[in-house]
UniProtKB/TrEMBL annotation:
One of its GO terms (molecular function) is methylmalonate-semialdehyde dehydrogenase (acylating, NAD) activity. NCBIfam families: MMSDH. The gene is mmsA. Residues 17-478 form the Aldehyde dehydrogenase domain. Gene3D superfamilies: Aldehyde Dehydrogenase, Chain A, domain 1 (3.40.605.10), Aldehyde Dehydrogenase, Chain A, domain 2 (3.40.309.10). Keywords: NAD, Oxidoreductase. It comes from Hoeflea alexandrii. This is methylmalonate-semialdehyde dehydrogenase (CoA acylating). CDD domains: ALDH_F6_MMSDH. PANTHER family: MALONATE-SEMIALDEHYDE DEHYDROGENASE. The lineage of its organism: Bacteria, Pseudomonadati, Pseudomonadota, Alphaproteobacteria, Hyphomicrobiales. InterPro entries: Ald_DH/histidinol_DH, Ald_DH_C, Ald_DH_CS_CYS, Ald_DH_N, Aldehyde_DH_dom, MeMal-semiAld_DH. Pfam families: Aldedh. It is an enzyme of class 1 (oxidoreductase).
Length: 496
């Protein structure tokens, strides 16, 4: 049985912990690895290694730090398919989808390659007679990241490329469900020549997270995961005086206006609702058609598409959707479907009982479609994180906007319409951090920043892009005056 190693101070080590967690292939239900849950001493060792590496790394000119990043990007490009295969094996998503995830991660590395420009700072000459002012952004020191299972390669890459490019050193605690993709990326990071201890990876559970949250040498925490844990991480981290950005769960609505192209809207909902088996924080889990006619037309278009979903393991190139991540999660999603039925929603396509020949032990859930869901139902209020799409019929545009604004989550949303005025009013008044106009999954590109509103993000900074640079640096303003200079003496050579 493969044992998942920690990466501390540039070396791979097997944890001495006697607490272990199994890693499964969700398509087959087989255990494929064992992940030791690191001890407090091992987490402390990772932080100590990061701390030892930071002064020299932080003092290195940003241009030189960027050169390591360029090399890393090149290696990631070359091994993108290998990383994608690791993702699919432990997460279950299709190969193309996994490759898309790796590509989005690489884009953040590309952004981090521009760090000399991003750290340029501000300068004002003569703020007083002979007085100059420099606003400089400096690294924090050791920073840590705690990441979820659903994007095992990309979400860590939302964090550490920018953090280390800014001159920090990093301790990553990946999800215990699919740890191999971040480990492969770490190997490429080392191959790119980064000094030992710049990026460390420790595996573990709550104990590892709490140790990082309480550690005085960890100056900032980036967290991505479910809302209850995000809120906990934010509270405990900030109570300990740390800077924390904690991104949480979601319930993303897509509004379909009567003038929208129904085929386009239905196709968009298929990808956004069922892609990656609905296990995306930007998945659309609620479709909000405006008006009964729109709703009837939309459901009529969706039903045959959901029934025709091609579900299979990642090794099947024709599969559009894989299994969910664990048996426990499969049971949870199936439980939500039961609950939707018992609460009175109309089950248009039932994904329960789906089975695939040869993969009977895999954690598959069939594509599920509910119509006439109401806002008091559990399947509307809670994040299901599975291939379950709910249609909530809205009487008017204003009702649709109010519904979305009243929801506790505010990660992503979209409107499908041909009317610019409706799209503009929607973008202005919606209380959600990322808005799509005829774009179902409006994930910002790497040189913008990603973040939700309300209970989808705790903290003041969105993640990656310019907000990432701000999060991983602190501002220092230097005001200087040089009363008596030495101006004499000619110099005929270039300074060396
Ligand atoms: P999770 O909250 O269970 O786990 C996330 C991380 O927290 C993992 O590393 C895990 O080990 C750790 N953790 C779990 N329980 C803990 C505890 N009690 N104390 C301390 N740490 C703990 O999330 P998940 O199931 O891995 O991921 C799915 C969730 O992540 C969904 O809610 C999804 O919406 C969310 N997500 C959000 C975004 C975003 O950008 N907002 C992106 C991806 C995923």
């Amino acid at each position: 049985m493969q044992i998942i190693e920690n990466a501390i101070g540039g070396k791979l080590t097997i944890s001495g912990s006697d607490r272990r967690s199994p890693v499964f292939n969700p398509a087959t239900g087989e255990q494929i690895a064992e992940l030791p849950l690191s001890t407090v001493e091992e987490i402390n060792a990772a932080v100590a290694n990061a701390k030892a590496a930071q002064p020299a790394w932080g003092a290195m000119p940003p241009l030189k730090r960027a050169r390591f990043m360029f090399k890393f990007k090149e290696l990631l490009d070359r091994h993108a398919s290998d990383i994608a295969r690791e993702i699919s094996r432990e997460h279950g998503k299709t190969h193309d989808d996994a490759l898309g995830e790796v590509t989005r991660g690489i884009e953040v590395v590309e952004f981090a390659c521009g760090i000399p420009n991003l750290l340029k700072g501000d300068f004002s000459r003569n703020v007083g007679p002979g007085v100059d002012s420099i606003a400089d952004r400096q690294p924090l020191g050791v920073v840590a990241g705690i990441t979820p299972f659903n994007f095992p390669a990309m979400v860590p890459m939302w964090m550490y490329p920018i953090a280390v490019a800014c001159g920090n050193t990093f301790v990553l605690k990946p999800s215990e469900r699919d740890p191999s993709a971040p480990m492969l990326a770490w190997k490429l990071f080392q191959e790119a020549g980064f000094p030992e201890g710049v990026l460390n990876i420790v595996h573990g559970d709550k104990l590892a997270v709490d140790t990082l949250l309480d550690h005085p040498d960890v100056k900032a925490i980036s967290f991505v995961g479910s809302t209850p844990i995000a809120e906990y991480v934010y509270s405990r981290g900030t109570a300990n005086g740390k800077r924390v950005q904690a991104l949480g769960g979601a319930k993303n609505h897509m509004v379909i206006m009567p003038d929208a192209d129904m085929d386009q809207a239905a196709d968009a909902l298929m990808g956004a609702g069922y892609g990656s088996a609905g296990e995306r924080c930007m998945a659309i889990s609620v479709a909000v058609p405006v008006g009964e006619k729109t709703a009837d037309a939309l459901v009529a278009k969706l039903k045959p598409r959901v029934e025709a979903l091609k579900i299979g393991p990642a090794t099947d190139e024709t599969a559009e959707m894989g299994p969910v991540v664990t048996k426990m999660h499969q049971e949870k999603v199936l439980g939500y479907i039961d609950q939707g039925v018992s609460e009175g929603a109309e089950l248009v396509v039932d994904g329960r009982g789906f089975s695939l020949q040869g993969y009977e032990n895999g954690y598959f859930v069939g594509g599920t479609l509910f119509d006439r869901v109401t806002t008091d139902m559990t399947i509307y209020k809670e994040e299901i994180f599975g291939p379950v799409l709910s249609v909530v019929r809205a009487g008017s545009f204003d009702d649709a906007v109010k519904m979305i604004n009243d929801h506790e989550y505010g990660n992503g949303t979209a409107i499908f319409t041909r009317d610019g005025d409706a799209a503009r009013a929607f973008s202005d008044s919606i209380e959600v951090g990322m808005v799509g106009v005829n774009v179902p999954i409006p994930v910002p590109v790497a040189y913008h920043s990603f973040g939700g509103w309300k209970r989808s993000l705790f903290g003041d900074h969105s993640i990656y892009g310019p907000e990432g640079v701000r999060f991983y640096t602190r501002l220092k303003t230097i005001t200087s005056r040089w009363p008596n200079g030495i101006k004499s003496g000619a110099v005929f050579t270039f300074p060396s």
